[in-house]
Each structure stands twice: as structure tokens, then as C-alpha cells.
Amino acid sequence: VQLQASGGGLVQAGGSLRLSCVVSGNIFSISTMAWYRQAPGKQRELVAQVASTGASTHYADSVKGRFTISRNNAKNTVYLQMNTLKPEDTAVYYCNVPYDLQSWGQGTQVTVSS
Predict the structure, then answer these.
(1) Which of 45, 65, 91, 112 is the most exposed place for a label (fewest CB within 10 A)?
(2) Given a cut of 80, is residue 28 above it in pLDDT?
(3) Distance from first CA to last CA of the chain, Å, rounded?
(4) 15 CA to centre of own chain
(5) Is the CA virtual torsion 18, 9, 35, 85 positive or negative?
């Protein structure tokens, strides 16, 4: 399984970004998927997760109401819409399968300037 995240960039506080993660392999449609992030000097943390059907989602308290996770099983892709970004959202963002962790891949850098 390969996980390829993209869509990061530099944005001002209050701005928006949409991340995408394409997943190779046969596990995508049957797996809960999640976005994680790791800021410099900090541990990797779970940001949001979505069930295999997309019907159930879960968010870290720090992003509730600002981020939306979604998926397209036909495209083996999971998305993270990030609105009202804050400088503390600056991190490398990764996707993975939370109940069957795969190799992390390179992630995508999100930098929010104040």
C-alpha cells in the first residue's frame, strides 16, 4: 500500500487549503482512513478520521468546526478541507489507515503564516 498526500502549501491565517491523499492497493474501500499531522518538535497526532462508507467521522478538538474529512472510494482518495487556518495548524500532514498502519510516506507540508 502506498499513500501519496498532496495539496499543502503556504497560506495566511484565516485561509483555506484542501489536501488529497491517493491510496494504492486494495484496502482503501474497506478501511477507515485518517489524516494525521506532525509539527516540528511534536509527536504525530490524529486530526480526523472517516469510516469506510464515509458515514461516520471523528475530529480532534483542535480542528472541529474548521476541518472536514471526506473520501471518494471510486478514486481511492481521502480529502481534508481545512478552513480558517491558524498558525498552530502548521505541520506536515499525512494520511494513513488508523487500524492497520502503513508506511507513512512523505506527507505534505502546510505552513500558516500569522
Answers:
(1) 65
(2) no
(3) 37
(4) 17
(5) negative
Run of H or E including 19: strand 17-23
Strand partners, 6: 20
Calpha distance 63→91 (Å, rounded): 13
Residue range 90-102, pLDDT digits in tens: 999 999 999 989 9
- List, as one string, the DSSP characters of 54-103: SS-EEE-TTTTTTEEEEEEGGGTEEEEEE-S--GGG-EEEEEE-TTS---
Closest CA to 99 of 58, 38, 39, 41: 58
Q: Which residue has the cell 485561509?
A: 15
8-23 tens-digit pLDDT: 999 999 999 999 999 9
CA–CA separation, 43 and 8 (whole Å): 19
Q: 484496502: which residue's cell? A: 27
